[in-house]
Amino acid sequence: MDHPYSTAYSVSKAGLIRFAGCLQEELNEANSKVQVFAIHPGSVGGTQLENVNYVTKEYIRKEAPEVPERVAGLLKSILLDHTRLPAWTSVYLASGRVSLDNFVD
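and the corresponding structure tokens:
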């Protein structure tokens, strides 16, 4: 999803997703049984992303106080999941019960 004021986060997330995809292809070519997953729990609350002072710079808070207010409202609307979501997703993926066939058309 595209969210305003999250450019750096979105770019780094996209880079990691592509890295995981390319790494999986390299491992496939090497006949490796290792599976690569990119977990990006962007909707998980209870992290630093929930803190508007963490995600906005001090000069922005001072010079344009309306921006952090908008960002805080946006964060409250998208950070809805618990931190257990990525943790249990990782446990499930590491369990060996997942096959790449589930994700390939």
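(Above: one complete record from the training split.) The two ends are 23 Å apart (CA to CA).
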